[in-house]
Design a protein that fits this description.
Layout (H helix, E strand, L loop, with lengths): L2 H8 L8 H22 L8 H6 L4 E6 L7 H10 L2 E4 L5 H4 L9 H13 L2 E2 L1 E5 L6 H4 L3 H18 L6 E6 L13 H6 L3 H12 L4 E6 L7 H19 L6 E4 L2 E3 L11 H10 L3 E10 L7 H19 L5 E6 L9 H4 L21 H12 L1
The structure holds ligand 9MR.
Length: 374
């Protein structure tokens, strides 16, 4: 940027001047130019999360909604910091097929248009889940439910065929107590085979998309997590043995900044190795750190949240099969936690990498440092 201007200014020195004087003038012009260029330049841009992640063969993503993106500051932050977006809510069954056969892609299509315009990818979330289902789906008897699932996957995955790098095909299929599969309407009406059927149908609709089973509560060191991991591994091994299309697992990673959830991740690297041994990629799909039980003071909360980000990233970043880290929102203003798990004192939570004004905070620096180290 500076070189052409510099050359142009230096060449105006008349060649007829004595050598020594010419040299002095050249030095003075170059020095003055250097000074003004230095003053005109913006301060060196801070590294972005996507930039740091990409340098390490990873992608950084953020969950967004159209409503959140009405804030120009957030639009800018998401485009600068992320390489990928995922619709937080607007690509779920209740919005896409509210009435049987009446598909409406307008909201997720707008998100895809935003992603395209900013040079970002968009991944799909989510196809077969027990929540955010329209009432008409919940009322269907088994054979019709299976047909509705087939139509839904064919239509929705087909609509985005070749455009989304990955899909959360089955969301949260493991029971909370880790005893086996979740006793959802899918399991109760279609039997355990609903998972294989959903994956096979998604593969038929878009053979290029990486297919993912997305689950929460797999990150910590407690006994409940250990049971849930075993149930998850059992499911994955069965799917592998039967040759069902499956490319990756999603670890949601809704973490906690105190004892009501995981804050240490000692056993996580070995679990990731077990997943990798099944020839699966690993995606962190919904990362955030709930500060609900922490005292009100912001510096203290921010420090504790940053520490959990640091401990979690130190556990997952060395795993070579880790391909993506997505946070569930990007700035604190957009977190789902204020609506779903509000703090008792009514203060807004601070669970995400940037604060409510889209500014960096302690977690930002910790995440940057972790990515720099990988
Ligand atoms: O953040 C999402 C919130 O806005 C939705 O309305 C809610 C509906 O249950 O789902 C939230 O996202 C969930 C995600 O789709 C699956 N994993 C858990 C997330 C938080 O509940």
């Amino acid at each position: 940027m500076t070189a052409p201007g510099r050359t142009a200014r230096v060449t105006v020195v008349p060649l007829s001047l004595p050598m020594r004087r010419r040299q002095l003038i050249v030095i003075a012009v170059v020095a003055a130019l250097g000074w003004s260029v230095a003053r005109a330049l913006p301060p060196p841009a801070a590294p972005t999360l996507q930039g740091l992640a990409a340098a390490r063969g990873l992608r950084w993503g953020s969950a967004v909604t159209n409503d959140q993106l009405r804030d120009p500051g957030l639009r800018r932050l998401v485009s600068e910091q992320s390489g990928l977006i995922v619709p937080e809510s607007e690509l779920k069954w209740d919005g896409v097929e509210a009435a049987p056969g009446r598909f409406d892609f307008s909201a997720p299509d707008r998100l895809l248009a935003f992603a395209r315009a900013q040079g970002l990818a968009m991944r799909g979330h989510t196809l077969v889940w027990h929540e955010q289902l329209p009432a008409w789906v919940k009322a269907l008897p088994p054979a019709e439910l299976d047909r509705a699932m087939a139509t839904y996957i064919r239509t929705v995955v087909g609509h985005y065929r070749g455009q989304l790098p990955s899909w959360d095909v089955v969301n949260e299929p493991i029971a909370d107590d880790g005893t086996g599969l979740r006793r959802s309407l899918w399991l109760e009406r279609l039997g355990p085979d609903y998972i294989a059927r959903a994956l096979t149908r998604a593969h038929q609709a878009d053979p290029q998309a990486a297919l993912v089973i997305n689950e929460y509560g797999l990150e910590g060191d407690d006994a409940k997590t250990a049971r849930k991991r075993q149930a998850f591994l059992t499911l994955l091994r069965q799917l592998r043995q039967s040759g069902v299309p499956l490319n990756a697992v999603g670890l949601q990673a809704h973490l906690y900044a105190n004892g009501s959830g995981p804050t240490t991740f000692r056993t996580l690297p070995a679990f990731l190795r077990e997943l990798a041994a099944l020839d699966l990629d690993i995606l962190v799909t919904e990362l955030d750190v709930n500060d609900r039980e922490l005292p009100a003071a912001i510096p203290e909360r921010d420090r504790a949240v940053a520490a959990v980000y640091g401990a979690f990233l130190a556990a997952v970043l060395p795993e070579p099969r880790l391909k993506l880290i997505t946070t569930w929102g990007l700035s604190d203003r957009t977190t789902w936690l204020n609506a779903f798990m509000p703090r008792a004192d009514g203060l807004p939570q601070r669970p995400l990498p940037f604060d409510e004004d889209n500014r960096p905070k302690a977690a930002t620096a910790t995440i940057q440092a972790a990515l720099e180290k990988r």
